[in-house]
Amino acid sequence: LGHVVRLHDGDVHSRLLLTYWLCFLGYWSLAKTQVLDEDEVKRMYSIHKEIINEVINDIIYLHTGKAAGHHSGDSLPAHDRILKTMQSFESILTKSKAKTFQQYEAQILVKRVLIAANHFSSADLTLIGDPLQNMDFIKARYETLVKSRSSVYYGSDMKEEDGGCATFAGGEFQETKIDEYLKLSAAVAEHFKIVLQLCFKYIELGILRESESEGLKLLHQVLKTSNLQRCLAVLNVLFLTSTLARGDITNVRPDPFRPMIASLWNRSKNGISVRTDNERLNKKLNLSSGSQEIINLSEDEPSSLPEANKKNMESKLILEEHVEYCDCVICTLCGMNPQMHIEAIFSKMLFYRYSSRMFRMFSERILKLSQETSLDVIDICSALQKEATDKAIEERKYPLEALDRFLHAAIRWLRRVSEEEKPEIIQDVIKESLKICLTDPIHFRWQWLTIRQLARTPLKIPKLEWLRLHVSPVKAGLRSPLKSIVINLASELNSLTLCSPRPCPTVNIEKYTPTAKTNRNTVTNVINNYVDTEMEEARKDFDSFSHLFYREWRFQICSYLGQVCAFQYKANWIESGWSAAYYFNEAMFISTRQLARMISKKSEESQNFHFKNIKKFKKAVQCLPPDLTVVQLFLDSRRILWLIKLYSGQPPLVVPVAFLPQDDVLLKRFVTLLAENDASGNLSKTCTDPKEYWQIRRKLDKKLKVKFLGLLCSC
Fold it and tell me: Over the range 114-152, which residues count as b (16 or more CB within 10 Å of their CB) and which as e?
């Protein structure tokens, strides 16, 4: 970027490259001052570069014009115009026979516009395409660009399989090809950033396995260079993916990336391991009868330890505290590169699971970015701003990646530890986070939606008579004062007797009077004389952006709206039974829907994978065969287990069954059930008698029914 800034003002191609980079970094106002005029475009004599210039204009307009507004309603005329233009450009570029660098760069820019258009309200994905499909296309184009640029710079005799790795492995710098080197470096940097963005996108959509796969491939490439910042950024993504996949309670396997992060921080300047808690841990475990060697946290040696020891070792890992003027490698690089400092503190925050202290340190680090050294890209952009116009341009002071990390951390922090903090601190975090989202509403759409939902007041959950008491499971022949209550609920469910647990102590509960048995679908009698503003805003948010499959937001808002409908808050848009079933269904299988949409072709039928409204949901349920009943279990954001029954010709039955404050006990019992089911599925290898096989299967079915009902009763 610095090289391009110093080039002559009359270099049209360099100016176009500079404009493209400013857009890539998200500095929209500065990019607007660099856009080529019509006369400059005519001098280029290239249809591809003309398309690039037009697409850049549209990108800037989307992020800075009125089209960037956060809400809702119908699609703006400008949106339709831009989408039609992108479709036209996409067709021209696809039909073009000449394969050039500019053609691929133009295709990448067109796809970036379509990805941004996915954040429009009521976006039509039949025109835009799935965002993951578009990002995967961009990644493939960058891989081709890196190989092609490598061949141009290093020579045409380079093997094709080595082209993609040439720049990672290093090589002799050729001053006579400085422009080609610049283009190659740009392609490599852009490829790295787009793959990192793809990994984060997978995480946001709940597709953790794909995120880990892409992250490991990227780490393999990055390790060929000496760029510790990129290595740490990839490790952060892998650590985040691993943490989300394992959870805090349900998966007891040790996280392999925690020791790796610890090994980066717990090193002295000469590279010798710090002998602190790890040495004491080795002595406790008696791993060696001789010299008590230190465990190398960056390798896979702990895998040979017993499971309990591995878990203990992981829980005792701590990060070494560094002094203010520490001269270790990480601290030295952090002093030179502000983005490296962001990644370093982000890794600490992931390590300590979004603790308030680390979140505060991370926030303070973000605030200091505007005062950094001239090596930072912000100051280069500031110099551009002064040269471009005499007027002051209001531009964001912080890099886009830093703001992405902050908003991600803020959402996780609000979800994990907000109940332990003072309300005024929580409100300040929400307020500042929403301010950041307003700086680029298109880019920060899902963060804005999620933070708005987390800021809403939790609903008051009524105290249901079959939920409020914790008793032992009802046994056959046992006379119990709860028998009538259990039978009443059983008659509603058309099932066996159930008895459910006491509510979670964190749930806000108000007194509730049991409903009359005559109204089959009414499970509560909560009556409000007004529609809460927050409920109405939540409904509008979901109606406008129901095509987005961001897991955190969709699960939270659909749980919230489902509770509103199930607990009979009065509103003209609530249909008894149908509304609650609709919202709870939209909260299920989010990542599965996204994966299905990603691999499907662009057509009206395949791009939905969600019901746009209750009317379409009704139509689908009414198409069920008369002899088929769909039964669903859904655990919402307040940890209420819901039973949903769908059948043709009747309204759905939606019943809150139990409060489940913990997962671990249930998980063990479900694992046992699944193991027995898997074992019976393999009977065909050993059991040759069909009658005996089906006898065993039927016994297992009965056993599973009894165990499942006992599971609900003992919750």
Answer: bbbbbbbbebebeebbbbbbbbbbbbebbbbbbbbbbbb
